[in-house]
Amino acid sequence: MKILTYILFSTLFVSTACKSESIQSEPESTMIEPPTSVVSTPKIQIKIGNKTFTATLVDNATSKAFVAQLPLNISMIELNNNEKYADLPKALPTNASVPPSIQVGDLMLYGSRTLVLFYKGFSTSYSYTKMGKIDDVTGLQAALGTGEVTVSFEVKE
Questions:
Q1: What is the DSSP string of 97-123?
Q2: Cβ atoms 127, 96 nearer than 8 A
Q3: Residue 124 lies in a domain
Q4: Which residues contact 32 (CB under 8 A, 6 or more apart)?
């Protein structure tokens, strides 16, 4: 009987000593920190006579290169009774595509140097690089008038 008890305790002791313990730790919680700087969409002011409009720019290389040229006072020419255009001092990078339609207040680049401000909406087959859009187009067509007009573009503070 002693031998049987000895074998039983020995087996129990050996099995306990050889057993690998797996310690399960609680998973570490990973906290995602909010960004320290908030990236905002660039805004510009467009002054036509005594009227000022705010435009929100698209976050692309074209708009960034355009902002680098600001402030600008340019003479914009009437075209097709729906837009004003002007050649910029320096060419901008492009990523042209045919938009589904032109909207009132769209600010686009035609080619690499021609800035276009649309005051009427319509369908088009021309390719443009989208640069931005005037936030509130109330009074835009009246401010632009029917002929050539001087327009001021500057970064909004």
A1: B--S-B-TTEEEEETTTEEEEESS-B-
A2: yes
A3: yes
A4: none
pLDDT at 42: 84
**Phi and psi of 81, rounded to 5°?**
60, 30
Give the pLDDT band of residue 157 (cuts 50, 70, 90): confident
Rounded-to-integer distance, Cα 12 and Cα 4, Å: 12
Residue 72 lies in a domain: yes
8 A C-beta contact, residue 147 and residue 38: no
3-state secondary structure of 89: coil
**CB-count burial class (<10 Å; 0-12, 13-18, 19+) for 48:** buried
* pLDDT on residue 134: 98
pTM check: above 0.70? yes
CATH number assigned to the domain comprising residue 123: 2.40.100.20
Contact 149, 76 (CB under 8 A): yes
- Sort 109 into a burial class: Cβ within 10 Å, 0-12 / 13-18 / 19+: buried
